[in-house]
Design brief:
Keywords: Cell membrane, Membrane, Transmembrane, Transmembrane helix. InterPro entries: LSM_dom_sf (IPR010920), MS_channel_1st (IPR049142), MscS_beta-dom_sf (IPR023408), MscS_channel_2nd (IPR006685), MscS_channel_C_sf (IPR011066), MscS_channel_TM-2 (IPR011014). Pfam families: MS_channel_1st, MS_channel_2nd. It is found in: Cell membrane. It is a single chain. The chain has a five-stranded antiparallel β-sheet. Strands 6, 7, 8, 9 and 10 form a five-stranded antiparallel β-sheet that branches. By secondary structure, the protein is α+β, with helices and mostly antiparallel strands. The protein starts with a helix and ends with a strand. The chain has three domains: 153 residues, no CATH class; 77 residues, SH3 type barrels, CATH 2.30.30.60; 91 residues, Alpha-Beta Plaits.
Length: 353
């Protein structure tokens, strides 16, 4: 150890140099902390066209990355003003560069996750609601950060990329089912067929439920009994299914029945429409919804058949609407002396108007 160097470093000039560097560090860091609270709301307003509240993850992530950027800038200025020796400076700045890449990579991943969540909340978009997109971009960002660290250490990344390209072909051949599921999941999202929260029904087995998530390998569907169906993306993309939430969630439920020939048809129609409106008012006390429609269908052997069409906000509301309507209509017809007759059609739900 060279004691002369230490003695010079801790001399009066050394203390002055350290003081200047520390004051510069503190000023830049303080400015960054103040600026973070002003930049983030403006950026969020420009990107999302709407402000965000402070507890929101996007606000916290944006403020953290702004402050981290100023912290790294302040640290760089601090090290520069210390006027380190050439050998010491190379080592210190190499470590600083690697640490900066590491911290910024993690901060950018967190910021992306928060932007992803905010975009999904604002737009209810199809792509933004699935974790497969988020996971793919996170892995890409971590890979880029790792390559930058290796490049900073003097390790050439060109041979690594070449080896990955050759090895990637061998891996792709061994992981064909996995890659098939990955690209099938991306295809489902890009073609705007599904999104998280949609209610779907698979053809054949009659399996139906809410789409919980679309991951890199599978699509998870939650049924009414809270069990989960896990379908590989490759099978999902080639299956025939009905999406009850596209193009809209609004749904029309058709209930068919029949009354005796001696019934007053005008009176029957009026009562059925009134009961339909009462049913919707009970289930949707606040929201306005479409009108109830009534039409006679045909003369059956023992009855005059009719159909009542009831609107609903989404597919799963049909069960409560059906239950309430049948109960009220049966009670009202009994009171009015209108006799039901068996209809061969029964109850049939139908998507659309």
């Amino acid at each position: 150890m060279d004691w002369n160097i230490l003695r010079i470093r801790w001399s009066e000039d050394g203390f002055s140099e350290f003081g200047t560097a520390f004051i510069s560090f503190a000023l830049v860091l303080f400015f960054g902390y103040l600026l973070g609270d002003r930049i983030v709301p403006k950026l969020s307003d420009a990107l999302l066209r709407n402000g965000i509240q402070r507890p929101h993850p996007l606000y916290e992530s944006g403020r953290r990355i702004v402050r981290l950027s100023f912290f790294l800038l302040a640290s760089f200025i601090f090290l520069k003003l210390l006027k380190l020796s050439e050998r010491t400076g190379e080592t210190v700045f190499l470590g600083f560069r690697i640490l900066s890449i590491f911290l910024l990579t993690f901060s950018c991943v967190r910021l992306f996750s928060a932007v992803f969540e905010a975009y999904s909340e604002k737009t209810e978009g199809l792509i933004s609601s699935a974790s497969i997109i988020s996971n793919v971009i996170r892995i890409t960002m971590f890979a880029v950060g790792l390559l930058l660290i290796l490049q900073s250490l003097g390790i050439s990344v060109a041979p690594i990329l070449g080896a990955l390209g050759v090895g990637g072909l061998a891996v792709a051949l061994g992981l064909q089912p996995t890659l098939s599921n990955l690209f099938s999941g991306l295809s489902i999202l890009l073609e705007r067929q599904l999104k998280k929260g949609d209610y779907i029904r698979l053809q054949g087995d009659g399996l139906e439920g809410y789409v919980e998530d679309i991951t890199w390998r599978t699509t998870a569907i939650r049924r009414f009994n809270n069990s989960t169906i896990v379908v590989p993306n490759s099978i999902m993309s080639s299956s025939v299914f009905t999406n009850f939430d596209i193009p809209t969630k609004e749904f029309s439920l058709q209930i068919e029945a029949g009354v005796a020939y001696q019934s007053d048809l005008e009176r029957t129609e009026k009562i059925a429409v009134e009961v339909g409106r009462e049913t919707l008012k009970r289930l949707y006390p606040v929201h306005e919804i479409g009108e109830v429609s009534f039409s006679y269908q045909k003369f059956s052997e023992n009855s005059v058949d009719f159909k009542v069409t009831l609107p609903s906000f989404e597919y799963t509301d049909q069960f409560a609407i059906k239950h309430e309507f049948i109960k009220l209509l049966h009670a009202r017809f009994r009171t009015e002396g209108i006799e039901f007759r068996l209809s061969p059609q029964g109850v049939s739900p139908k998507k659309g108007p």
